[in-house]
Amino acid sequence: MNKQIVKPSLLPGFMELLPADQIVFNGMMDKIRNVYEKYGFIPMDTPAIEKSEVLLAKGGGETEKQIYRFNKGDSDLSLRFDLTVPLARYVAQHMNELTFPFRRYQIGKVYRGEKSQKGRYREFYQCDIDIIGNEKLSVINDAQLPSIIFSIFKELGLNEFKIHINNRKVISGFFEALGIENKTEVLRIIDKVDKIGVDKVKAELKDNAISYESIEKIAEFISFNGSNEEALAFLKELNITDKSFIEGVEELAKVVHYMEAFGVSLENFIIDLKIARGLDYYTGTVFETTLDKYPEVGSICSGGRYDNLAENYTNKNLPGVGISIGLTRLFSQLKDLGLLKGDNPSTLTEVLVVPVEDTMDYCINIANKLRENNIVTEVYLEEGNVNKKLKYANKLGIANVILVGGEEVNSGLLTFKKFDTGEQFKLSLDEIIKRFK
Amino acid sequence: MNKQIVKPSLLPGFMELLPADQIVFNGMMDKIRNVYEKYGFIPMDTPAIEKSEVLLAKGGGETEKQIYRFNKGDSDLSLRFDLTVPLARYVAQHMNELTFPFRRYQIGKVYRGEKSQKGRYREFYQCDIDIIGNEKLSVINDAQLPSIIFSIFKELGLNEFKIHINNRKVISGFFEALGIENKTEVLRIIDKVDKIGVDKVKAELKDNAISYESIEKIAEFISFNGSNEEALAFLKELNITDKSFIEGVEELAKVVHYMEAFGVSLENFIIDLKIARGLDYYTGTVFETTLDKYPEVGSICSGGRYDNLAENYTNKNLPGVGISIGLTRLFSQLKDLGLLKGDNPSTLTEVLVVPVEDTMDYCINIANKLRENNIVTEVYLEEGNVNKKLKYANKLGIANVILVGGEEVNSGLLTFKKFDTGEQFKLSLDEIIKRFK
């Protein structure tokens, strides 16, 4: 009888990995989590499905079109499209049970029904950290977050990256001083400078009725190139008296000072007056992170300061600062760039114990002892000849095999085979365990 | 201006935790993962959303009504309701890229729009391990999985639990020998014995036109109570010649033998002839796990052997054995039973460094060094008096605080305060680091 076979396949825009890649992916996620935790961030986990009226409380925007929204029974549901909105809801909902500043990390999948294209996923992991204050939050937090990101990228072996820092108050104060009225539109335009270049930005500004003088000043501002000290000096020399501008420059100076204190290397961060993160809700410090050799990849980690996280859910004033690594995208970009080590094993197993005669019980006992010593161990349980069993180890990339026949059982000396070097030894179990320590 | 405030709330049937519980929950998940990995299982992660035609290929059943199913664009989508169907799809889809036996674990959220009731969640974590063979799979694997579960429950500090083992071939061979025709219905009835008792089972069997003699034999069978050896002897003494029965008894004997070899304590597993997992697709070994003192909780970890995992997606024969821990439910049950340690801290932080004068840079530097030594460290970055800062540590349950004023900076001797004992010392940073090792 032939059953009806459904072709096994995934929806477009959804990623899943084969074992070798999955192990690398999980290793990256573990590193991110470990650094977040080493800085004392609290884990948080919220449902992937929430009430649409809650998730979409802010309303409007490009995001809303991408939402996976549906009904079940009487409920209007949506899948979360980021981890920031659930954080806002969580903090407002549990306000009285939390201690502030509330410092949490959350690593989880989010969903956006974007147009399917290379490197864009409809389900992807975000790895967020945020610090939320009750009414107030020191700007030193704004320096701490990129410092944590610095530690993570170092852990991931990415040394040639740069964290770009700016402050929205500086930009908007600068616009204010120029007498620009349609700030949002101008912000949107200069936000594109990395993609379209300064000349096109200037043309677009002209189209928006910005004066020649202002355009030249904006061009000089967003083209500024120099050290952090030089950037701060440049800003001061603009002699702008706008209150927001002065505050922004002070904050920027503090963030630079404390990033150094937190141990970020000077080659890994820079004031960048052209970054604005135009369409986001940031109100102070903003961050982006680029790979030095691959600027075309764009920002691999962004974030910033927001004045009021949960304004849709509470009248309390909850300023915060947050930063997010889009891990699914980062993984796929690093893989495409060839920056992930190739030829990874498809296994976590360190030792495969292989019975070559009727020695299964003995093999299982050896494996138990290896595991007691925290050595990742498998026993080959299937029938077959030794070649078949070694082939299994070889295909997965298991580095070590212990062969156990009657002779090994009698002598207590096991045949220990190292796949990488091809070496083979006769060793007692204790000697083998010592080799792993 | 008053903004429109949306009341922050979750959908019924969705769980989220406050920090102290979340930390305990994650600790349990880490333990499960670590044991799975120590046995060399490969991590796997599949999308939460799949094509409905794929996820529902099997069709029918109670589950289908519970599915979160919706359209997006032209696509008919469903949220996964378990991790077994995605595993079947994954293995069939990537057949040629995988090495068999394929041993994977997967920890992830699944979705079932069940009627909302206490202890039942619509989004919950499952922690699955399965071993899939290509055409064949040794029954020793059936013994390995409950042994891994044994290790996990020991790690979780649950010592008084019992893994119940049976074999579907034994049951169906027994029915065959009795000449019972509507086996599925009888299976469904005896599956309820723990809930309704033997007398009601007998009554229901009678309603289903089972003969008096057969009912008595079935009652004796499902009421059997004795050691594993006694159970195997009991089965042999039935003198049933049905091939499936004999095979089942042999398998059961092997599973018992190898569970001992894998190190499972005799008080933690038992042959239990009444468990059938009636409505599932199991064909051989079946497992359930109960807490000795809380039988009313039911099975906290179940699984079994299936002949053909991916029959809806491929004509290849892929026998497997799997077991699953429903972590969300387990956590909530253990919490309700008071079996989780209470009064847990709401933090992972081991040390809070507190500037008591203008010593922020110094404090940050100390924190950097503590983290370099893998000590989870936070600096209190906000303004305020010492009491406010200590209150923060106290509320979160941070055990240690380092106070740094001008005096400490000058002398290099820091004030190290232990919250649990109230002790306070003057120590150098090196001495503090040593205390944590």
TrEMBL record, chains A, B:
It holds the Pfam family HGTP_anticodon. Residues 32-355 form the Aminoacyl-transfer RNA synthetases class-II family profile domain. L-histidine binds at residues 82-84, 112, 126, 130, 277, 281-282. It is an enzyme of class 6 (ligase). It comes from the Bacteria. It is found in: Cytoplasm. Its main location: cytoplasm. Its EC number is 6.1.1.21. One of its GO terms (molecular function) is ATP binding. GO terms for cellular component: cytoplasm. The keyword Transmembrane helix does not apply. Keywords: Aminoacyl-tRNA synthetase, ATP-binding, Cytoplasm, Ligase, Nucleotide-binding, Protein biosynthesis. One of its GO terms (biological process) is histidyl-tRNA aminoacylation. It catalyses: tRNA(His) + L-histidine + ATP = L-histidyl-tRNA(His) + AMP + diphosphate + H(+). PANTHER family: HISTIDINE--TRNA LIGASE, HISTIDYL-TRNA SYNTHETASE. NCBIfam families: hisS. Homodimer. Belongs to the class-II aminoacyl-tRNA synthetase family. HAMAP family: His_tRNA_synth. This is Histidine--tRNA ligase. It comes from Clostridium homopropionicum DSM 5847.
